[in-house]
Amino acid sequence: MFTRGFSTAFLLFALTASANAAPPTDGTPYIDRSGSLPHVMVDGKPFLMLGGELRNSSTSSFDYMKPIWPRMAAAKFNTLLAVTTWEQIEPQEGKFDFSYVDAAIAGAQQSGLHLVFLWFGSWKNGVSSYPPIWVKSDVKRFPRVQDEHGANLETLSAFSNANRDADAKAYAALMKHIHQVDSKHTVLMMQVENESGVLGPARDHSAEAAAAWQKPVPDALMAFLTKNKAQLQPEFLDVWARTGYKTRGTWAEVFGDSQRAEEIFEAWQYSQYIDAVAAAGKAEYAIPMYVNAWLTQYTGEPGGDHPSGGAVSRVLDVWLAGVSHIDVLAPDIYLMDLRGVLASYDHLGNPLFIPETRSGAAGGANALYAFGQGVMGFSPFAVDQAAETDNGPLAASYRVLDQLTPLLTAIDKSKMASVVRQQGETKAVVELGGYLLRIQYEGGGGRGGGAAAVAAATESAAAALIINTAPDEFIIAGEGVTVSFTPNSKGPKQAALMEVDEGTFNKGTWVPGRWLNGDETSGGLSLNFRGSTPTLQKVKLYRHD
Ligand code: DGJ
User: Fold this and answer.
1) Cβ–ligand 1 contact at 79 (below 6 Å)
2) Would you say the pTM of this structure is higher than 0.90?
3) Residue 470 class from Cβ within 10 Å (0-12 exposed, 13-18 middle, 19+ buried)?
4) Residues 6+ positions from 488 with CB-CB distance below 8 Å
5) What is the Cα 218 distance to its own chain's centre?
6) How far is CA 511 from the centre of its chain?
7) CA distance 19 to 371
8) Given ligand 1 and candidates 54, 116, 125, 306, which is best to mutate, with the most ligand atoms within 8 Å of its CB?
């Protein structure tokens, strides 16, 4: 279905090329998946995106952006997520204007920043406000999603090949242009569309969509689901279980006649459309490409609570089955359960990346946690509005993470852990390097405990990123935590602090500052990271009976 009207030969070529592609040797960005954690590589080196997303309309004005580029660099961002829009680059069909793209690349370069470009093409937040007017005004040529009553919505239909091919053409032109002008590899990655899916009904009811709903579920999807059945997301399996895991039939026969089945149907269709757009772009310039998702919120009703068909965790498997030119499926995390969301996207080899999230104190602590879980990048939203400064909590975390980058991009995943306080929590326990690390959040527990401690715990951010650098040795970046150690491996039963250094990393080399003891280690009991500014400590432990 999805290759109809699009050059099948071209798609086959693109699929084969992407499956067999050797890593580029000219410094072009790519994702290295050879180690225990995937990393974005640029100019041959791994790079952690200490990012921030600009507001939707910021890059549409050169003058508006002029003071912002240097301000963002001063606030310790190394990467900005910036918008490119279909209406701006192709105001008339086939006539392209890349001046805004060029200005963004130049602005970022002048301030030593990298970019991730967001392609606001067919969809942005479940509607189609960014296609050019020659697309939006011609609803016959470029069909819309229709509701149950046949009314056209402000959303392009994912079942239209004309929509897909026009978007793919524009996106390919954009990628060709970036390839031509960005010899310095300022642009690291592309986001294809933005929080796609249908808002309103759970599925499109246009004639094309209605016909597709009656067709058999494609073999490619069924083959993926059957092969990976033991590992599929539990929420997806719940739906499939309702029909006894049927493997043949129409969408309603295989997944049940429900809104959840309609969401699965839309997820497949959006994955096909967006993968075709990405394929057209990668044929011009094959840098990493990802899709971001507006997550399920409270009711979970597809179309009402979140756009139906977007890459939410419960249809992640459908997306994984459907794409071969999208490298990452990424959650926009505004929910409080950062840990749960991140864990649900750490699925079947999907690299972790957080393209949108909250900033402020929570953002600073969450960044420490996220990089400890191996994200390739982290990017709070609206950083040009949020008055991010060199003194802010996010900058404080990014300063530490920047120092840790050589270590974080070289260390095996099994040697790394992280914690972050979520609502009401007072402590955490981590198992790493033969020790149990007991982490107490500042203001939580200890003397008093109870309701007061819980109240305090909900107020202040606390997090730790822990790296086991050698036997009995740890580097920890922490804020608002104390950390104590108990052995949980063979050998003497007690652990104590041998040497604790506060310090910094300079180009990957540890530079010790104060030697901490006495009050600063609570008399040798714990590492103390007081307050909300993260610092680095290196500890060596010894053991005795
Ligand atoms: C999510 C969208 O992806 C962003 O572009 C932005 O509109 C934010 N929501 C606003 O909170």
Assistant:
1) no
2) yes
3) exposed
4) 431, 434, 435, 436
5) 28
6) 32
7) 28
8) 125
